[in-house]
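Issue: ligand-bound run for (2Z)-2-iminopentanedioic acid - logging full I/O for the record.

Environment: standard queue, default settings, no custom constraints.

Inputs:
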Amino acid sequence: MDTQAYLSDFLTKQAQKDPAQKVFHQAVSEVISTLTPVLEQNPIYIKEKILERMVEPERIISFRVPWQDDKGEIHVNRGFRVQFNSALGPYKGGIRFHQTVTADSLKFLAFEQTFKNSLTTLPLGGGKGGSDFDTRGKSASEVMRFCHSFINELYHHIGYHTDIPAGDLGCGAREIGYMFGQYKKLTNDFTGAFTGKKPNWGGSLLRPEATGYGVAYFAQNMLATRSDSLKGKTCIVSGTGNVGIYTIEKLTELGGKVVGFMDYDGSIYDQSGVDAEKELVFVRRGSLKEYAQKFTHSVFRPHQKTWDIACDVACPTACENELNADDAKLLVKNGCKCVCEGSNMPCTPEAVDIFQQAGLLYSPGKASNAGGVAVSGLEMTQNSMRVYWTREEVDQYLRRIMNSIHTSCLTYAEEYGLKGNYMAGANIAGFKKVADAMLDQGLV
Ligand code: 2IT
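Outputs:
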């Protein structure tokens, strides 16, 4: 069977196994679609069934999370940890607390994380976890009781040399603190078993900013390949969570002008650009209406996305599949030069095709949003060495890692005849490192 036929057969069989797992299959198809030249040059990956092994998580833990609200009523949520691949190191990846969390969404995120972590060059395997619990509208003590209950089961399965969770959507330093506290209580062990901790008890400086800063560094690198830069470029960022806010901050610091951003309620068009000092605080507070009232040069557009606003650089940093083919067409029509993903798989496959056909610079989240997990890796290093690095030291490592991911994407894409294709380069570079480690470690 030729490679193309093998891959298409492989994808059909995968989809038949778990037909409901749509986003997971989307992520697998995206990776597989770029691997043909690698498999042709390295038939051992086919012979050793590396793809078949790689799409099967090493372990999925699913558990009950009972907790009591402030009135004494009992609630039951679902908890998960997907330990996807440990060929390169202990499982590493965030914990997502959001009503949309399912085994399917976490499988997709853990699969992506495996490639992303491989790209960072750090010794990290891939995992992801979470619960269908939503922290919004809950009191701090309810969140604490939930986090403790979550860890009462999860502590059996994680640890400094086994699996190191971090934050993700709905899970920030507060939740990491509660989870770490309970983990320490149950294990009697103060180790860096979580990242995203507060810097006064083991966290790394710059961890909250790292993903967003990394996105802006990556966009800057992409533009540099066309002898261009962020100076004077109009930018759009979706999502006003941690990633979005720090993407806006760094894009602005590097000379860009962020003219549009959005959250669940709608979007803002601000023709003069977000002022990093005066205005960003309002974005951070999460009230776009308040922003428009306060800064009258801006307009609030209820329930409207931002992608119709003309821009040079677009950074989707919200949720998966938020940017579809229609949005992509608008961006291309309005002259967008660069799409740099800040979240995991925010563009649909059709949108990605449109970007690639139009020849604009497009990078997948697994490359351009890897700054967060990279600084988590640096947090682990600091914990092992029992030292704290300064912001400047961490920032230097972060820049170095983002540069190296950027170079890997370009080098691998070119080596396999797909010059300038960041998606192919990221997938091939991420895949090869994991695949080779799996071959070295035998059939386990
Ligand atoms: O999607 C991601 O890369 C994260 N949620 C960060 C994971 C981590 O371990 O810092």
